[in-house]
Amino acid sequence: MSAKRGRSGAPGRRLVVCLGLGGVGKTTIGAALGVAAALGGANVDMMTIDPAARLLDALNLDPTSADLREVDLGKLARSENDDEPRARGQTLRPGRLRALKLDAKHTFDELVKRYAPSAQARDAILENRIYRGLSAALAGVAHYMAIERVLELCADPTASVIVLDTPPAAAALDFLDAPNRLLDLLNSRAIGLLGSPRTFARRGLRMVDLVARAVLRAFDRLTGLHLLGDVQTFITSFAGMYGGFAERAERGRNLVRSTEATLVVVTTPTLERVQEALEFIQSLRKSGLEPSAVVVNRVTKELPGVRELERSGLPEPLRRKVEQNHAEYAALRSREGQGLALLRRELHAKTPLLFVTNLESEPSTLAELALLGRALRLLLHA
Predict the structure, then answer these.
(1) Whose CA is closest to 108, among 100, 116, 117, 99?
(2) Which parts of the chain register pLDDT below 70?
(3) Number of domains in the chain
(4) What CATH number does residue 376 fall under?
(5) Rounded Cα–Cα distance for residues 179 and 372 (Å)
(6) Angle of CA points 267, 272, 276, to nearest 5°
(7) In angstroms, rounded to a whole number, what is the distance separating the alpha carbons of residues 230 and 237?
(8) Cβ atoms within 10 Å of 157's Cβ, excluding its own
(9) Where in the sequence is the domain holding 305, given as residue range(s)?
(10) What is the pLDDT of residue 136?
(11) Within 13 Å of residue 309, how many CA atoms lie on the same side as its CB?
């Protein structure tokens, strides 16, 4: 496995955000970057949204825990010292690697506990069934909580690098915009519609609002669920907390747009994936964001030429089969070449472009992640 640099290197920054379509190896690339940075001496905290089971095992992550867990780098660090050339007597001192899988509900609970104006308001929210369903089920809440958790990680002065694995590209823009969307919801007319009668008296209601409330009351009478009352209790309990949410949302929005963040877009070289990645990059730019680097994962390796096969001395039937496989492989390389040519044309000239050759299987151990990470250290060095 190897990686090649297509253009000049990206500057090293404290927050590394991995973005990309589902299935391109984005989570694996993020994990490899975290392992590489820690083996290079950095104190790394890494958060992943939904890692594969093999990465959970490799990083010693408990899917039921919301806490950072230390990843043991002992044997791997000794191996790195054996493999890496350096001056006589010099020993590489690894940093610290901690990792967690996002638990959106736990993060939301902790946020409520922090900003609730009183113990009574805190308990009213945490015990409210609307809140329990909202905090556990809605994707938008999970996206906001991911931003919140990143802010907590960045607030730790002992962490020199934070690596964030984001949702697939289809949801990544929602993830990046989650603070704004949540605040829009909290300040929307829908919230006013479902709030307390006292709020209605101050704001006044249109006829359509009165009809909507009448429908909700009728629904409550038929079902016995008391939904409107629960929603009113939930919204009223959040009174006095909006300022804290707004302040954190502003910090989250500024963080991903700051010079402290490196936005790494991961793709594979097929033409379809490259086109989708370029569409995603355009969407980022419309939001005022520019990728710091693009990693092209699973690039097909070069094979010996046909003439070498002819000189191989293989039996004729076997040679014909090998030549057929070689032709199919060459066709695959050609299709990938179209995607890579498009990527080079459309990317800004100064955007670093890295290529990672295809592996026989996805890395599933710390040693394999370290091997991949070595090829990507460019993204972590100033």
Answers:
(1) 116
(2) 1-13, 78-92, 130, 133-141, 169-170, 178-240, 242, 303-314, 316, 318-319, 322-323, 326, 377-382
(3) 1
(4) 3.40.50.300
(5) 33
(6) 60
(7) 11
(8) 7
(9) 3-380
(10) 60
(11) 16
